[in-house]
Amino acid sequence: EGEEGARGPVGRHRDAQPGISESSLADTWQVVSLLLDYPDEVLVSRVPMLRGVVGALPDAQREPLTEMLDTIEHGDLAALQQEYVDTFDVTRKCSLHLTYFPQGDTRRRGVALVEFKQAYRKAGVEFDSDAELPDHLCVVLEFGAVQDWATAWHLLTRHRVGVEVLGQ
User: Fold this and answer.
1) pLDDT (tens digit per residue) in 51-100
2) In 10 A of CB 107, how many CB atoms?
3) Where are the beta strands (DSSP E) in the chain?
């Protein structure tokens, strides 16, 4: 255990491990990475396939993901898209870029982005800089689901403040 800090035990998450099997973790991360992307017709068409994946997950993962799939399947796509923009593009506290929370738009954030790229490279993945930034939550989750869950877990726990803010 770490020392007590202003927000509770310091370092308590550093050595934590996921509480589910690797396959369930990979499936959960892949589904969440798709659901956190901008909703479009392709996502709506994938709902039946995603339900098949989500149906095999433990209750703690299955229930909220099933609720989200219900929302996508039965919701108005234009309204979902507007809600996405209002949540993730307008509200600064809901940035999907994990380095934004501790660094904001500063030079230090550039260094943090390089650290993400280096982590991917060390895991054998060359990051495509034409796509999202390497700290985008969907990118990290997909990387963890498809390539290297342990490296993704490390990145997520290292940037847990952003993940916790998004969860709230």
Assistant:
1) 999 999 999 999 999 999 999 999 999 999 999 999 988 767 788 999 88
2) 7
3) 4-5, 8-9
Give how far Cα 126 sits from Cα of 4, 129, 143, 154, 155, Å.
38, 9, 11, 18, 16
The DSSP bridge pattern shows strands 4-5 and 8-9 to be antiparallel
pTM: 0.84
What are the residues whose beta carbons fall under 8 Å from the beta carbon of 131, sequence distance 6 or more? 139
Whole-number Å distance between alpha carbons of 30 and 142: 5
* DSSP secondary structure of 82-111: HHHIIIIII-GGG-SBTTHHHH-SSHHHHH
* Residue 11 predicted with pLDDT over 90: no
Question: At residue 51, what is the residue type?
Answer: R
In angstroms, rounded to a whole number, what is the distance separating the alpha carbons of residues 57 and 20? Answer: 9
pLDDT value of position 10: 38
Residue type, 93: K
